[in-house]
Amino acid sequence: MSKLAALLLLLLSFTAHAQRTETQMLSGTGNDKTVKWQFYCTAGRNSGKWTTIPVPSNWELQGFGKYNYGHQKDTARGKEKGLYKYQFKVPASWQGKVVNIVFDGSMTDTEVKINGQSAGPVHQGSYYRFKYDISKLLKYGKTNMLEATVAKHSANESVNDAERRGDFWIFGGIFRPVFLEALPVSHISRVALDARADGSFKADVYTGGEADEVVGQLYSLDGQKVGGEVKAAVAAGGAVTRLQTTVSNPQLWTPETPNRYRLALTLRKGGQTVHTLSQRFGFRTVELREREGYYVNGVKIKFKGVNRHSFWPSSGRATSKALSIMDVNLMKDMNMNAVRMSHYPPDDHFLEACDSLGLFVFDEVAGWHAAYNTPTGTKLTEEMVVKDETHPSIIGWINGNEGGHNFDLDPVLDRMDLQKRPVVHAWQVFRGTDTQHYINYDYGNGTHLHGHNIVFPTEFLHGLYDGGHGAGLEDYWEQMWREPLSAGGFLWDFSDAAVVRTDKGGILDTDGDHGPDGILGPYREKEGSYFTIKEVWSPVFFERREITPAFDGTFRIQNRFTYTNLSACRFIWKLAQLPTPGGTAAPAVRTGTIAVPSIAPTEYGPLKLALPADWAQADVLYITATDPTGREIYTWSWPIARPAQVAQKLAITTGSGSVTLTETDSLYTANAHGVTLTFSRKTGLLRQVRNAKGLIPLTNGPVLAEGETAFEGLKQHQDGANVVIDATFGKASRYQSLQWTVYPSGWVRMTAKYFPKDYDFALAGLSFNYPEKEVRGIQWRGDGPYRVWKDRMKGTNLGVWTKAYNNTSTGEPDGTKSPLYPEFKGYYSNFYWLTLQTTGQPLTIVCDQEDVYLRLFTPRFAAKPYNTAPAFPSGNLSFMHGITPIGTKSQKAENMGPMGKTNMYYDYSKDPSYAKEITLYFDFSGDGAPAQKAVGKK
């Protein structure tokens, strides 16, 4: 290469570089990549001395200042400030350019100086990108000094009202990135886009300096040109330049198909390119049709949404791109299609993740229960729109939360947004939308779904501890799905707000009952509601189907996608044999794919499985659906073998030897195969169990969960080689019968028939005592691995599960640790058998009836649980026909839909055929792994 050619290449490279916006990071990019700045805290921990701090960060998490929750009165308010210093160089080549210093977020009042000179007015407001032109303050090619003074609380009381006095943690510091941007004197300063589903495209291009022409070219993301160049002359005086074109049959942006394009802009002066800019966007049309619904691309939307704070336990509101992608993926994995930014605009990388992975977004001007004043709110609203307006995921703006609405800001959003996206007020009837929070299932005359507005609560089912979220959701969602004026809703909220307390040895703190509101734990641990939501909000809906010998492999399913045909999804079936007690081998599995017919959104159709001829020999059928991107929608399970079939294979009711029975005034004592059982003749209850290895501490049962026992006595008789002990009861008893059968094998059967306490009742079932301190874990066959409530039945699968003992109270951190999930204690549905793993001998119990719940001890509830501590029966090991629902922080379970009501049982004829019946087989051998031998077989 000649010297001239090399010089020309260098000149071209320099020219192209000079035409682009150049950026230089002064801070790190997030909590996973920070830069140390000098720092001085004026009050609280580690105050009064210069040291260093990572930027971005919140200073409380770095050991400075004082932790504050928004509800607390802070006596030191106004005294706590952070002073930052950072030295940096800028290239000499930047001289003559427009150089801005950009802060993506700083809490809260921020004064900026460059080389000792003010960069501009103090910025008030925490969650908004602001910038200063510092071109005249810089020393080019030399070292510069940045100084920033950040006040944790604002001198503007409206900012404190909107941001600092809320139901969330309050932090201080530069918590989002800080960087420089260098632009040519003639440059593009802002682009507003409106790309619609019909292919119409317009862009308003804002410019600075002098230029003649703006040229736009659309591209696909793989670099292919879309249409030709679009040009427009720059109006004199720097007015906005409008570019317009039309694209034929664009690929549309939706949460199910997040297709995007790229706009390349070129600013020219005198025929020469002076600045270039690239912006991604998506074609889609957003409409709010009065008294009808929310529409995107002409299709009515049902929001399956959640509220999300920008939060991480060890870094507060300082997050990262990786965290944003993780959170969006978790939402997508729960089959959500929408997220509300509570209660402020998010990091830009979160919106980028919503754009690329596909989530509807409602972006929000802060204002928890009070609003910014109009001058401040106008400036901050404009900053939010300028930063966020091009994101196709944003389909609406929210002006304040729960009374934090400044109506003067609605015209600002209308004026600023080229797309004219709808504006809503959270928890207010406004512009034809009703977004009331924490609505009851039936909210009453003239309101909610009895009114005329489009209804989508921007907060519902407040998920304190284990209540809410999944509990009640099935009732709410089925109502929302079928009601034409419902646009769905947004759960409160995504993850527990537990912060690492650097002032308390690193414990996790939720500020009592203020922070544990999440579907996920603070480090995104999955709580039970995660899986319930995943199933309830599945876009594949299975109509109920029982698997019987006549099953022909056909299910009737509904497509609850908004835009996707089910034929684009993949379905796989699995037939599995489940392990027996003590077995650890993975179940034997056979699999196959399912041909899916064309089923359009909202339509029903058949799903036909080509199962092998011997399918009925399997224990369970699973079906897994994945969406067109390969993301699992859900895995469903159906029992093939019922409890009675399994019990027949497990319980050993024959054997050599005999059963002996002795009696005293107070006891019956039965002996068989080294097992000794004693029953109280005064109460009818099991008193003690022993075998050759020692005591098995199962006692004091069975006790009715509710209702009069009216026990009268025990009687016994011989039934072949077996001994049968029958209880007798008075007329007032809810028991119809109670019988114990002791077999020569040492196995024992208990059969009870009873009627629930009343027409409606909280609990129905039978309980025993077992010392919790001796339990180390459990293996069981049934639905799991998470517990259920009466109003949160979905989200489990039939299988054989193993779980170590824990004492988790959902959402309550245990010292320095997050809670352990799944929780050990609680109710488990579809119970077949269990083996308790203990400090002594294992205990196996087998059930031969359907629809029985296993109760494992009583969960540890928080000191102030509101409606999230349901009743449990006496004892601690129970076999139930009726269990309790769970409420939310703001609602009792009975107000959350039919599933939250008390149990009902209306037959009072006392006809034994209507009695609730339960049969349990007990293996008291201490082996924990019963042999495979059928009941009654010789």
TrEMBL record:
Recorded catalytic activity of this chain's protein: Hydrolysis of terminal non-reducing beta-D-galactose residues in beta-D-galactosides
Glycoside hydrolase family 2 immunoglobulin-like beta-sandwich domain residues: 194-284
InterPro entries attached to this UniProt entry: B-gal_small/dom_5 (IPR004199), Bact_Beta-galactosidase (IPR050347), Beta-gal/glucu_dom_sf (IPR036156), Gal_mutarotase_sf_dom (IPR011013), Galactose-bd-like_sf (IPR008979), GH (IPR017853), GH-type_carb-bd (IPR014718), Glyco_hydro_2 (IPR006101)
Residues of the signal peptide: 1-18
Residue stretches in coiled coil: none
Cofactor: Ca(2+)
One Pfam family it belongs to: Glyco_hydro_2_N
Keywords for this protein: Calcium, Glycosidase, Hydrolase, Signal
Residue span, Glycosyl hydrolases family 2 sugar binding domain: 51-184
Glycoside hydrolase family 2 catalytic domain: residues covered: 288-503
Enzyme Commission code(s) on record: 3.2.1.23
GO MF terms held by the record: hydrolase activity
Record domain Beta galactosidase small chain/: where: 722-808
Subunit details: Monomer.
Family per similarity comment: Belongs to the glycosyl hydrolase 2 family.
Name by which UniProt lists this protein: beta-galactosidase
Source species: Hymenobacter monticola
